[in-house]
Design a protein that fits this description.
Length: 347
């Protein structure tokens, strides 16, 4: 089955998805019966285009890598640079909109508006954007159900490492009692450097920024807000809770010192920033804080910019998964998982 896809935002993750669709086209068609063509792209830097016949993916990637306008890819494509992304979404002849704009944890915009517009105009949606799902999940879920469209967001918690598809398939029939884990690769990298190379916090943060793991303003990561957003998503989606992101205050790693890490190590522990979700009646409670984890705990062995989650399940007991929490192709893979899930649902 051939799907017409529109991309909103075509930066790192969008290009990762395009690389996958180009490289895996034959195997996706032969093994899964899935084919895709990109019929629209809306990007505030690279331009807006609609191409009903589909853009050439390799030419698109080449233009993007060279910093050229998307208009160079298909001279016959409609050029819509005067329109907003929401206008392009509404006009795009797409079956699925992939929303990949930058996360805003204060309002969830403009991504929430993009998702709403896509659903209201009869399009399925895939997003990797934490903002709309952390802040407006129930509203968006209900709108998707009302419009009989699918909303998928695998990449919002552990990038390409499966969480929601794992629950739908591998953990089917289980009741989850608790989830705890490392949900932010930046802080895990910093804490790993502080321990393994005996760095102080400032030096480890500077190295994380130099390597691109941390932003110039690292507050969302080091103060725990990124991990909290992911914990709230897990609580609301997997536990059926209705938690408000702004109602929970995380504790970050800015108060962790080299001396604290040395002392923990001497006693057989390791510091990790842990996000947790616990079942609480018909809902859930969440928390984010640095914890001293015993070295025997699977989470203690997760070092560098990696993520991991331990699920406490009624039938299986504790199950831990580990994988990348960021990356161009890795997050593109999360989008692919969601596209294939939509394909399976529709066929």
């Amino acid at each position: 089955m051939n799907y017409r896809i529109g991309l909103v935002g075509c930066g790192t993750v969008g290009q990762g998805l395009l690389e996958i669709l180009d490289r895996k086209a034959a195997s996706l068609r032969d093994q899964s019966g899935f084919e895709a063509k990109i019929v629209a792209i809306a990007d505030k830097v690279k331009g807006n285009v609609i191409s009903p016949q589909g853009l050439d993916i390799r030419k698109t990637l080449k233009a993007l890598r060279q910093g050229r306008s998307l208009h160079d890819v298909d001279p016959g494509a409609a050029k819509l640079d005067g329109l907003s992304a929401a206008d392009v979404i509404a006009a795009a002849p797409a079956d699925i909109i992939v929303e990949l704009t930058s996360t805003d944890l204060q309002t969830g915009e403009p991504a929430t508006q993009h998702i709403q517009t896509a659903l209201r105009t009869g399009k399925h949606v895939v997003t990797t954007n934490k903002g709309p799902i952390a802040l407006h999940y129930r509203e968006l879920r209900d709108l998707a159900a009302q419009k009989k469209r699918l909303l998928r967001f695998e990449g919002t918690v552990m990038s390409g490492t499966p969480v929601f598809t794992l629950f739908e398939n591998g953990f089917a029939g289980n009741t989850v009692r608790e989830i705890s884990g490392i949900l932010n690769g930046t802080t895990n990298f910093i804490l790993s450097k502080m321990e393994l190379e005996d760095m102080d916090y400032g030096a480890a943060l500077a190295q994380a920024q130099k390597l691109g793991y941390a932003e110039a303003d690292p507050a969302a990561d080091v103060e725990g807000f990124d991990a909290l957003a992911k914990a709230v998503i897990l609580a609301n989606v997997l536990f059926g809770a209705d938690l408000k992101f702004e109602a929970v205050k995380p504790e970050g790693i800015t108060g962790i010192t080299r001396e604290m890490i040395r002392a923990a190590r001497a006693e057989g522990f390791r510091y990790k920033l842990v996000g947790s979700v616990r079942r609480n009646g018909s809902g859930a409670s969440v928390g984010v804080s640095p914890r001293r984890i015993p070295l025997s705990d699977p989470l203690a062995g997760v070092m560098g910019a990696r993520n991991a989650l331990t699920f406490d399940l009624d039938l299986l007991g504790p199950v831990t998964i580990e994988g990348p929490g960021a990356g161009r192709v890795e997050t593109g893979h999360a989008v692919l998982q969601d596209l294939l899930a939509i394909h399976r649902e529709l066929t």
